[in-house]
Amino acid sequence: MTNYDIVAATGCATGIAHTFMAEEALEQAAKNKHLSIKVETHGQAGIEHSLTSNEIKNAKAVIIASDIDVDPDRFVGKKLVNVKVAKAISDSDKLIELALSDNAPIHESSNTRSNDDEIQSSNSEEKKSIGNIIYTSLMNGVSHMLPLVVAGGVLTAVSFFWGIYSADPKSDQFNQFAYMLNTVGGTAMDLMVPVLAAYIGEAIAKRSGLVVGFAVGMIAFNGGSGFLGAIVGGYIAALVILGLQKILKPLPDKQFRGLKSIFLYPVLGVFTAGMLMMLINVPMKALNTGMMDVLKGMENTTPLLLGIIIGCLSAADFGGPLNKAAYLTGTALLAQGNYFFMAGVSAACIAPPLATGFAVLFNKKAYSKEERSAGYVNFLLGSTHITEGAIPFAATNPLMNIPAFMVGSSIAAVLTYFSKIQVPAPHGGFIVLPLVNHPILWVVYILIGSVASGILLAMIAEHSYRKKSQQQPEFTETNNNNVENQELSDQNSAAIEKDNSPASILSVNNIAFDVTATGRNDVLHQLSTFAEDKGLITNSQAVYQKYLQREQEGSTGMEQGIAIPHAQDSSIKTSKMMIFRLKNEVEWKTFDGKPVNTIISFLIPEEDDGAHLNYLSDTAKLLTHQDFIQKLKNANNADEVYDLFKEYNE
């Protein structure tokens, strides 16, 4: 049996991206802290990596990063941090630190749940704010509704391949297979309202809330109050069940548990909540119809304003409640046969992740290797209508980056509405292009918005990059940093536009293995001779003296057997990096007091406009990554070392 330092559960409304991005972020943060972790994910494929009772019992702490219900009562008595899923993506390190700290709250439950899954009251949950309960329950409803909407919408849209009226038996376009597709798809879409209501009720009042939620959801659907009615009905169902649980609490569970769960709660709950839903259905229908009419009217009268509103909502929280508000409205109109509104929503949701890809293309040096990789992956995620990939980029500088995303999303939506583009499918991104009435134009508009946001993001990243580059990077201990910091304090020149990564000045010919040396000075002497033999310098003795001078000012020994000696002299032609792997270790003053067997040396011309500071600081940063050091130590030849530096500087 494996014991874990931390156990966690992640889940999001869609169960597609947030869930697994949070899982990855928590696992990486735990790995960096040398902690073991197991993350249970609640995605569209169901619950994966389920936590066992023993794993929970033996864990030091629990993290819930979820927008949906993940059954927190399993964790009674444990240190528990409960946050929204986006928090784990943007701040996983702090979450782990908080969970393990003495400040972490202990999860408590009052009466716990009985075997029939009832909840005695909302107070039996962890002491959450009303806002948090409303949010998580709404997202629980949305997460269960979305697969039906996507399946139904796509099948309905595919039926139009045979003609817009191909499902109408009275039309000349009628096709039996198209009729079947349309019927199946429409039935799935019709389930949107009752499923939304049911799982809102289930998140708060468990199984009984689910049953009553289905009933009031059907009343809302038949009464025409749509998804607004479903949302209100779901909370009515939950409140009615919670009220009945309090009223019937005097009945002892031992004798009446089965009667309550099978008979009393369903019958009294459906009756009470159903009557309330019947009463509010008329005003809710008027509100729902009025809102839809206003939005449909804006498509024709003020497409500019509508596009800006939809763009800002879609890019405000990347799959959160504001984004979902726009998406739910689009699906509701889609069910009514309005395909214009969803076109703008989809464009606004696709643009942000694509924008991150363009941003890293426009300004590679301003982003880390991990950010560049994420940006490239977002080309794929964005193309399939998965907005969540933009979250890590938004989290780095939300006050600047989120408005930049909003600009691009708004441009894409506005252009889409002006051109009357129709998208009959509620999801799928570019996969459903055959169903779009003007597919090429739609893609062009999305790319225009994405590029606009990408340019803004790249400019913001450049500003941050320049600001950081003006700061003094520290890569020596306090007792060894006097001269190094003096060198770094001279970094006042303009940012260098060319590639100043260490890999740019390294070649396979400048790497030597199994070098035999008797000590530090012998290594430095051999470096000088090696450089002259390779034609990198014209005076090996002068460079050797500069090496010695540098060591007298402050040791260049690092730790884990690595030293980074460097020399700056007029006899050096251009900046170059050399790497020696010693056959035997030599003594060198290092941070950890251990001998050295790996030498990373820099040759710097007398006039280099501060470029060597970039090489040194970038190399020092690489040496903070244990995986890089391990790969460097395991390299068996010059080609492997060269490829390693290229990999970490791409």
UniProtKB/TrEMBL annotation:
It comes from the Bacteria. InterPro entries: Bacterial_PTS_Sugar_Transport, PTrfase/Anion_transptr, PTS_EIIA_type-2_dom, PTS_EIIB-like_sf, PTS_EIIB_2, PTS_EIIB_2/3, PTS_EIIC, PTS_EIIC_2. GO terms for molecular function: carbohydrate:proton symporter activity; protein-N(PI)-phosphohistidine-fructose phosphotransferase system transporter activity; protein-phosphocysteine-sugar phosphotransferase activity. It is a multi-pass membrane protein. One of its GO terms (cellular component) is plasma membrane. SUPFAM superfamilies: Phoshotransferase/anion transport protein, PTS system IIB component-like. This is PTS family porter fructose-specific component IIB.
